[in-house]
Each structure stands twice: as structure tokens, then as C-alpha cells.
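FORM 7B - TANDEM STRUCTURE REPORT

SECTION 1: FIRST PROTEIN
SEQUENCE AND C-ALPHA CELLS:
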Amino acid sequence: MSDYSKMPTLFETCTTVRDEMTFKFKFNEKVIERMKKLYSIDYEKFVDTVWDKYDEKKERTLNREKWYNDPQTYYERFKKWLEKFIMPTSKLAKEKYSIEKYKYARNKKGGRIYVRGFGFQSLHGKIRNYLFYDCSEYYDLDMENCHFKLLRYFCRQSELINDDDYKLINEYCDNRKTCLEKWNCDKFDVLRMLNKDQYGIKENEHLQVFHKEISKIKDILINEYKHICCDTTNKWNPKSSRLDFLLCYAENKVLQYVMEHEKNACCPFFDGYIANTKPNIDDVNELTQQWGVTWSIKPFENTMKNIEDNVNMAVYDAIGSDKFTNALNFFEFLEEASHSDFAQKYVDMEKNIKYTYCVNGKIKMWFEWNDYNIIKIRFSDPDLLSHKITKFFSQVLKMHYMECVANMDANSQQFLNISYISLLN
């Protein structure tokens, strides 16, 4: 135990800080232009140039959604998200800001916060750096060695843990670079060790010793903070999972405390955030020095130097045209429509008798009517209309469908030759 235990605790200091879950991200023309270029890259070039290869050691520490590490799904979500900003009629493009809402992890009432759906927090590192490099409006603030410094803080607070009980934690917090070189590992190896209940004898021998020290501390802290270290569904590493939640819970409290004081956050990023004005790093460090948490500003550095070679701006140029929008909508209709959908779309083919398609729960009905009365109610498609629709589909719709398919790239969901698509009015 040390004098740190006499100080107000982190949770006491942050008790009045309400977790902010809505953020306003402002962006400029430079970012919009770069979004257009990213949108114009097809799937294969996206994977080769833009995609951050999956790093299992790293991603296990972030608790991302599964789709985040699947290039095809990520590409599709990323393109849909970009469209909100680059469409000529987009409200976001005109107002130059986006409101994004956040949530806790599934079944949690605290801890790290994650963007709902796809948002700026979902951007891979290469994309984020490309969008914001050389922009004076964006600053990436990061807590240095966050979880281990918070772990040291809790050790210092505990009356059951002596200074000698966390020597390696101290050493790693004060000299991380030297430790990693001496132990022949990287920071993700150390985080992986922290999140394991059992650390195998075939693993790094230096980390085996480190793991023994931490294991004793886990039991003490989980018991002391059992009101926070809630039950876990992690059957393989239950102790580590509960300690991890305590650290994530404290991490978010520190983050929220700083963001409330600085009032410049536009996007939280786990143990840091993107600010829209340049902070005074000394002021930020002063806010959290009582918990031993230090901050740094990381520069945005573009590593995709050859991205311009993979851009086809004709793809973006087409997106604003009615022709593109109509063709894409029509293609989606053809792909998904049922026979009744076709009947609805071309219901005015019979001029003397009008048809209305009605769905009430699981019951589907056709109403046949003229200008004055309902003539019939049917539970199947009207024979006359069915015949006309079938004939029309076989002769006209099929032709349009084949044109769309021939010019649609399945991966990018883009038309290869917009001008070739003939449209139905």
C-alpha cells in the first residue's frame, strides 16, 4: 500500500461525469474529396491498397464486430456509409458534419463505447490516416499504455497489495520500450498475456513471470471491485475477462472526464479520441496525472501513397445522375421482386379495371375495382393481370435484367458501363 490510497479515487472524482454517447463530427472539403476517391476504388483494388490485414493479436484486444475483419462485408458497409457524405443531394455534404451515436458492448452497462452501425470509429487505420492527414482540424489523442497504467493505479489504491507485488507492472509502465526489447515481444503479446487466465509453459518465458505477478493481483482486484467486475460469459478466461471489464470501465471514465473538460471531442476511439481543435497536451496530462495516466498526440500519416493510381472517378461522377440511381434501383427491384411486386409496379396496364394489392398480416388480397365499386376480392393474382405481367416480363423486363447483370460488377455492386443501361420510365 502507498500514499496513493489516500487520494480521491478515480470513480469518486468522475462520479458526476455523465457518459456522453452522442458526438458531432465536423469535416471539411478536403475530407469529402478523399471520401469520393475512396468510393471510386473497386473491391479488388480496395483489398490490395486500402484494406488493413487482419491482425489477430491486435483485434482480440478491441472486441470488434465480426464484420469488421471480413473485407467483403466491410467494403459494402464502408461504401454505403460514404454515400451519405458524397451524394450531391446529401444533407451531410452540405452541412459538413455528422451526428453519431454510441453504445456500450452487448449486455454491458458501462465500459468502452462503440459506434452504432458504421461510423468514423469503424474506419481502419489506413483509411483514417488517409482522410485526416495534413488537416489542421483533426488531432488523434491517445492514452499511453492505458490498461497497464490503470492496473498500476488500482494496485496503488489497494490496501492488500504491496509495492513489491507489482514490480514488473511498474517497470513495464515506466519503460515499456526497453521491456519489449528485453522480452523479445510486442505490446500485443503483453496484452494477450494480460487477458489469459492460464499462460502456457511454451510461451514467452519473460511473460510467464509477468503473468504470475498479475495473476495474484487479479484475484484481489476482482474481489475489491466485485460491484464492477460483473459476471462474464467468457468460460476460458473468466478472471481475465472480469479484470478487463474493470480496466475498460475505468478507461472510459478517464476518457469521459477528459472529453468533458476539453470539449473538443468529435469521435471516441477506445482509449483515446479524435479532437477537432488542437489540445494543450500538458493540460490534458494534468487532468489525469492523479491516476498515472499520460497522453500523447499521434500524427495522421498517409501510408497509401499510390492510392491515386487506383481511383476511377467516373464511378463517383455517375452516382449523382438520375440514370445511375434509377438503374441501380431497378436492378435491385429485379433481383428481389416477387410476381406480385411486378403486378403492383405495372398495375395500370389494364385501363378499365383497377387493381389494388393489400397485405394484412399474413393475408394477401387483390381488390379489383372501377371508378365506383369494388368488383372482386381475390387471394391470388388476377388472371388477366397475371397474363399481361408474364408476357411483359418475358419480353421487356428480361431484356433489361440481362443488360443490368451484364454490366454489374458483383463485388463492388457498381455498373461497369452506366451509359449502356436502358431504363424503364
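SECTION 2: SECOND PROTEIN
SEQUENCE AND C-ALPHA CELLS:
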Amino acid sequence: MKFGHLVARGLDRLGYALVRNDEREAERQERAHLERAVVRARALRKDVIASLGDKIAGVRARAAAQADGLTRKIEAERIIRRALKASVLTIAADRDALARDNKALRRSLEAARADAAALRARLQSGSEAADQASARLRAKLDVTRARNRQLKAQLNAPAAEPAPQVKELSKRRSLTRMRDLGIAPGTLFDVGVATGTPAIYGIFPGVRLVLIEPLAESLPAMQRIVEEHPGAIAINAAAGHTEGEGLFVVDEGLSGSSFMLNPKQRSTRRVPMVTIDGVVRDHALEGPYVLKLDVQGFELAVLTGAEQTLRRTEAVIVEASLWSDRKQGGLPRILDLMAWLGQQGFVLYDIGQIVRRQTDDAITEIDLVFCPEASPLRTVAAYKTPVQRQALIEKRRRAFGLERVPQKWNPVLR
């Protein structure tokens, strides 16, 4: 029993060993199979990774190409957008320019219509204008003939020293002398009319009178002057350097009103403002011109608005103050007026009038008369005629106890 039990136990152990060997072999085979599977899996993974890398590179390349194409498209769209914007701006600028051209064309058309109307009016009054021009020419010819007769009389006069005469200074005397020397203006401006300037009216035959005054209180006087001088024009506005409006300071005495007064001490009113150049243009006024200014310190502004007119002006009469530096408002000095007119080619020709103040009889205002440097008024350079000069020489020689000298020169004005 015991042996059999031992045999059985040996057989069991042997069977168990065999089974363990079989299990070990199976495990070994299974491990080898797994190792081969792992190797195949790694190789497959490597192949998959390589394939995926190629695919990813291709995808990246395609994405880069698409991105580059998209970038080019975006840049092209930006260029197109900028071009469209520039086109829109150009179109807007062209539209604005076209609008400006249309406005300019409308203004030109209106100006052409106004010129046509003025031309029709001038054609309608052509005979009257021709008569006036003929009258001016006849008056100028008569003045020239009278001047020639006067010169001949002076040349043939006896060699006697005329007694000195004190001649009154006045605007009328200055303008009359100009008329006698051949000046025949087509238009006479009275700027700063107040109640009228009779000293300058009725001197030049056929001249057209233009009255400019901002005070409404001067309208009755201006209307009376217009009735007395057919063809005259009355403009109830201030003359200045630009067209528009201005704050006009009204003095208690009215005639001393000005833009240059202190508005805090007096009443003020808004008045329309014109330029002399604009008046000449709007009314088709014929030259040459004579300007008289009495504008209480606003002279340079008025002259600035008459620069075109001054090119055909025979004379400018300006009321100037000797006390401008003592007054408020920065009134121009006489030197300022002379310098400004000198730049325009004018020189001082005469003194029309001297006004003295009542307190101490000092000179306060002077009417200065200017003419162009090349004016016919300045063609005669001699101070005396040859006969008058000979008489003066003999008088002076007699004062020295010398004998009379014979006249050795041809008595012709230098």
C-alpha cells in the first residue's frame, strides 16, 4: 500500500512536471508570439508614423500653398480696395471740381448777362455818351487852345516883374487849374459826401459824378445833387478795402462819423461797404478818374479798394490830419498817405485847402492833391517863363548895381 502510494505520488509529480513543462513551453511560445507581434506592431507603427509624416507634410505643403494663395488674394483685394477708394476720392474731387466749375460758369453766365445788359444800356445811351465824349474832347481842345494863347501872351509880355499875388488855396482852384491844363476826367468820385462838396462840382464838362456816403441822413442832399447833375450816381454805403458790412461809429455832428472812432463813446450802426473798383465795375464807369476822399482816417482802406481804378486816375484829393498821432484809432499820418500813394506812382501836386483849429489857429487838416508822376500836369519843368526869368535876372542885377544883360536864349519853355 505504501509503495503504491509512493508510486502514485511519483506519477502525480511526474505528470505535474510534464504539465508544467507543457505550460512553460506554451508560455514560451506565447511570449515568442507576443514578441513577434510587438516587433510587427513596432514596424507597423513605424510605417504608419512614416506614412502619417508624409501625409502631414503633404497636408502642410498644401495648407502653405493655400495660405500663400489666400495671402495673395487678400493683398490683391487690398490693392483693389485701395484703388476703389482712390477712384471714389477722385470721383468726389472731380464732382467737387465740376460743382465749382458749374458755380464759376453760372457766375460767368450771370456776369455775361450783366455785361450784356450793361452793353445794351450803353448802346441805348450810346448817342448820349458819344455827345458827352465829344463835349469833353471839345472842352479839352478849347482848354489846350486857351493854354496856347496864354503861353503866347506870356512869351510876348513885356519884361516886367509881376507883383506877387497871394492866391487862395481851395479844391476848386486846384481842379480848375487841372481843367485848364487839359485834364478831362470821365468820372469824378465824391467819397464822403456828408451834405455835399460844391467846390468840386461843375468844373469838368461832361464828367459823371459818383457820390458815396454811408449816412442815411445824407440821402436828401445826395438826391438833390443827383437832380442837379444828370447822370450822377448816389450810393448809400461806405467805401473801403472790401465788399460787405462794417461797424460805423456815428458822431454827434454826423459829418465827423468814421470807422476809426471809439465805439464805446458814441452810437454805432452796421452799414454796407463797397470798393471803388467794384463800383467802377458794376456801373461800367469810364475813365480817367478823379477821386476826392473825406473819410475821417479811413483813407488807406478806401485807396486799397481802388488799386485798379488808380491806374487810370488823374488826381486824388485826400483830407489829411496833422494831428493823427494824437487821436484814437490809429489814423494814418500824412507821411503814411504819401508813402502809400508813392508806391502807386503818385506824387504830391498841390494843396487844395488848409483848415485851422479855433483854439490856437494851428493847422489841423490839409487837402492834399496827388497826381501820377507821369501826369501831363508835370510836363513843364520850368519855374518861370523865359520872359519872367529874364525880368527876375535884371531885377537881381539891378540890386547888385549891374547893367542889364540882353536876352540870349530862345523864349521856349523848358
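SECTION 3: OBSERVATIONS ON SECOND PROTEIN
Strands lie at 187-191, 208-212, 233-235, 238-239, 244-250, 267-274, 289-293, 313-321, 346-356, 363-372.
The first strand starts at residue 187 and ends at 191.

SECTION 4: SIGNATURE
Preparer initials: ____
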